[in-house]
Amino acid sequence: MTLLQELSTAKGEKTQASNINVATQCLASPTRLEEIAAGLHHPETDAALIADCAEVFTKVAEERPELVVPYADALLPLLTHKTTRARWEAMHAIALIAHLIAERITPLLPTLRTIIEHDKSVIVRDYAVETLSNYAKAGGETAHLAHPLLREALTLWVGKHRARALKGLANVVTHLPSLAFEMSGLVEDYLQDAKGVVKKAAKELQKACQNAH
């Protein structure tokens, strides 16, 4: 049985258990990711299998993101896939390695902006903002490029993605301390947010601003 045959869709399962098992096998033997990468190139009609393969890359990236870097070019085209699950699994995997593939993310910034502005899936948009956040970790140049997009994401969709955007802005300030004063004023509006995850992200940004002074 090939790894593709062990995926949840191939086995007729509705849970992610089989995909997690395949990811575990790939972590133990990273060369087997080649088999999963091949699954990303199935015809568009086989969207469920494509999404399963992208999920395997996500699970591997959660443990060892460097193993997924060689497959970034296979994952990136899926960010605009017609099937929502394929988009969100691919975006999640890319978010987890964004700081390691900054040179591949830079030309895609307009695409990420469009996705954050228009994609109907909250999950896809969440991971697109997280991609920007982790991209900003890579250095001063990426922080500079991510900054305006993260500022926009902060208030888009009635602020639905504000927690991830605030975390990203903390990464920006870490590399661009000259923005600390500006960000110190901005973060005040979020320190008493009703959502705990937002307050936590706001405190991270506040701390980054304090450390930058």
UniProtKB/TrEMBL annotation:
InterPro entries found in the cross-reference section: ARM-like, ARM-type_fold, HEAT_type_2
N-terminal signal peptide: none
Protein name: TOG domain-containing protein
